[in-house]
Amino acid sequence: MIQTTPPAVRAALLALSLTTVPVFGHEHGAHQHHAAPETAKPAPALPAPERIEGLEIPDVTLLDQEGRPVRFYSDLIKGRVVAVNFVFTSCTAICPPMGGIFGQVRQQLGSRAGQDVHLISVSVDPGTDTPARMKEWGARFGAGPGWTLVTGPRAEIVQVLKAFGAYTADINAHTPQLVLGDDSRGEWTRAYGLAPPAKVMELIDKVAPRPEARAEAPAEPAAERPAAHHYFGDIKLVDQDGRERRLYSDLMAGKTVVIDVMFTTCNGVCPVLSRNLQRVQEALGDRVGKDVHLISISVDPETDTPARLKEYAARYKAGPGWYFLTGPKPDVDAALRKLGQWVPNPEAHQNLILIGNDRTGLWKKALGVAEATEIITVVESVVNDRG
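Request: output the structure for the sequence above.
Response:
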């Protein structure tokens, strides 16, 4: 199948080709219209990326393009590799090209978008840019999973813009900036926001290397795979963002996992279990998403779509590293059987939390409705096991 570039993206990239290259600073590269040069001139060099030291990102509550409250740091950036740009929807100069660039980058990232790399666009005109406007603007350039567009109260937006060095009192004077970083390592870079998609991908690949080496490596002989891999297998499930996750290789390999089962329409024990996992998440802090994964599997996959699970996850402030899983019923049932959690009726599911350390092979159970402090003690004993 031949893929064509969407018209809006083509238009944006054409606009980019007609925009002169400014340097960082408010006196250059502001929102100005430029005529195409009459004679061909050598393309000017792009401004060099600059390392950012001591970046402190505010955890203010904003709204995403769906109108959902999101904590800017905790929900969108914590522990992630991100690329952030700054736009406004009524802009007719540099913002459409920046939207086109993000659209192309998201397309080139493929399955890495929303998994390895997260794109974020922050409105510099929150008084005008409602979530609906941000959603419509993003759709013009192919926004989808892995690209979040945010707006919100002006005071909170200003905090974010100032933290990134992107604030200016006149929205028409803001410069085309792109901030890339790996929050888990505290490494941040400011780059030119109108750099071609290929250059942006080059910068992203330095922060989050492509997984080709792993993908192209010869398949591991079955006899050499860990025993846990043999047992659990790579049953394919789907998380709350609609992304496919292999049960062992993507979620369990080399991690400590904390697993419960639930369903979104449950009015009994499920909220208790989820609140307790929320407290586990808080107790483990930055380890969640790194060496620890929290896994909640729906026992009612025919009802619990990824969208329903995402809404449910938001109630418990689930952050990176906490996966809510569904999928085709036969696949979900197979995973539940492996965990000893399959039941014919969702209401009959067990109230247990399973905790396993794949590195050491230690597994324990905890009563999911016990006091959170008791559960956390068991979880920490498995997380900290040295074998």
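The chain has two domains: 7-35+46-209, 226-383.
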